[in-house]
Task: structure prediction
Amino acid sequence: MLIGEKIRTIRKEMNLTISALADAIEVTPGYISQIERDLIDPSLSVLKRLCKELQTPLSVLFSEESAPGVVLIKSEERTEVRFRDKRMYFEFLTPSIKDKENSSKNSPNMEVFYYKIDPKGWVSDELMLHEADECNYILEGEVEYHIDGKVYTVKKYDTIYIPKNTSHMMYNATDDFVEGIGILTPPMY
Result:
């Protein structure tokens, strides 16, 4: 199932109209309609707002199967996410849930993902804010975290912890790619 189809299915399960969802995430109903018909690829910031409003972890939109019990995820089987603007690429390292009704027994208590940020690239056009604690470990390069008017430079092998409900932005100010591992707990909505 494509991302747009999943968004439509979840929206309908919640008895939300396209207009109500569009108003809640501050986009037009036409934009939601195009997303649901897979005519356009939404930005990461729009996807995050959609997931928050639909009370659905981001990983659900990219999942293919449910994850019961112990799960081994081979590197070639990870769910990859690429956005049209190509500022960031990521892969889910933890299993994702497909069946919301069984999410409590199938869902991990965290989302772990590998990411790669393009040179001179912002991860999002706007501040990121979520109900999850976040920890990032930099594997390669360095990235700037803009938090509450302060800039934190996180270099190779450094980590940064960001408490839930803390607005932040990530920027790769260098001419090289940044690679890292991110952990969100509980999974991001």
Q: What stands out?
A: The radius of gyration is 16 Å.
